[in-house]
Amino acid sequence: MSATPGIADSKCVLVIGATAGIGRALAASIHSLPSKPTVVVSGRRQQRLDELCKTGLETIQFDANTDAKSLKAFVDDLLERYPQLDTIVFSAAVQQEFDFAKPETIDLKKFYSELNLNYVMIVTLITYLLPHFFKLGEQGQPCFIVPITSNLGIAPGAWTPCYSATKAALHSLSLSLNEQLKDTNVHIMEIMPPLVESELHDTAGNTGKVAKYWMPLEMFVHDVMEGLKRGDRTIAVGLSREQYERFEKGKEDVVHQTMEVWKTW
């Protein structure tokens, strides 16, 4: 095991939302590691899952945009099938445009759905998986929670207010978890992408507009994998790295200091 645990120490990895884009590419790259971890991918589209199954990945059809009861049943089934599961990567997300200058156009059902998938679902699954991860960690197996946030969680894209807010919330949660779990064998590795080549932008009909600005997926995954292998706490790539250095660097120390003060109250 490396001095700083990283993705190469994983034995079984679950990627939530891996039928396309970043999730699919990361699942393939993790599966190709010399350590040969079992990689389980989940997604809604069975045809895509069937394609992934042919590449040696384990697959589970599941729509993560659901309620807590269904998520608990999913975790129970998952751990029965994969008791060695030690890593979860949260790649499922949706990005919608909302214009609050025209409140009559706001579809609150879509807004709530985006909030659930991009944030509430992640909090719920982490809560249900942590007892299992703690148990493995106590046995010497490092475990990893890998949220995928965004540079829009640092400086929001005003055209995607819900998406930006969920990524900001997930980034904040990652900082808190990193501090709360620092004395356990459960590690947080936050991936912070810039605009990356992905089907994510299809939901807002933006593919044509953003394609000339995005970071090629292959380049992005290469840089992320290097960070995952090192066990980096924050893996900010491209423009996200610039914004992280400008606005976020040093925040972990502040979080730690305020936590120490809170303990004295």
Describe this structure in words.
The structure is a single chain. The chain has 265 residues and is α/β, with parallel strands linked by helices. It has one domain (7-263): Rossmann fold. It is built from nine helices and eight strands. The protein has helices spanning 21-31, 46-53, 68-81, 108-138, 161-180, 207-210, 217-230, 239-248, 251-263; strands at 12-16, 38-43, 58-61, 87-90, 143-147, 186-188, 190-192, 234-236. Strands 3-2-1-4-5-6 form a six-stranded parallel beta sheet, with helices on both faces. A two-stranded parallel ribbon has the order 7-8. Strand 1, helix 1 (21-31) and strand 2 (38-43) form a beta-alpha-beta unit. Helix 1 (21-31) packs across helix 7 (217-230) and helix 3 (68-81) packs parallel to helix 4 (108-138). The longest helix is centred in the middle third of the chain and has 31 residues, at 108-138. 37% of the residues are buried. The mean pLDDT is 94. Keywords: Oxidoreductase.
Provide a short characterization of the protein structure.
With 265 residues, the chain is α/β, with parallel strands linked by helices. The protein is built from nine helices and eight strands. α3 (68-81) runs parallel beside α4 and α4 (108-138) runs parallel beside α5.
> Percentage of helical residues?
40-55%
β-strand percent reads: 5-15%
- Put simply, the count of helices is 9
Tally of discrete structural domains: 1
- Element-by-element helix/strand order: EHEHEHEHEHEEHHEHH
Q: Are there runs of 5+ residues with pLDDT below 50, and where?
A: none
Which radius of gyration do the C-alpha atoms yield? 18 Å
Reported CATH architecture? 3-Layer(aba) Sandwich
- DSSP, total strands: 8
The CATH topology name reads: Rossmann fold
Q: Give the end-to-end Cα distance, rounded to a whole number of Å.
A: 38 Å
Structural class, please?
alpha/beta
The CATH superfamily label reads NAD(P)-binding Rossmann-like Domain
Strand count, sense and closure of the main sheet? 6 strands, parallel
Shape: globular
Provide the spatial order of strands within the biggest beta sheet.
3-2-1-4-5-6
CATH top level assignment: Alpha Beta
Keywords: Oxidoreductase
InterPro entries: NAD(P)-bd_dom_sf (IPR036291), SDR_fam (IPR002347)
Protein name: NAD P-binding protein
Family: Belongs to the short-chain dehydrogenases/reductases (SDR) family.
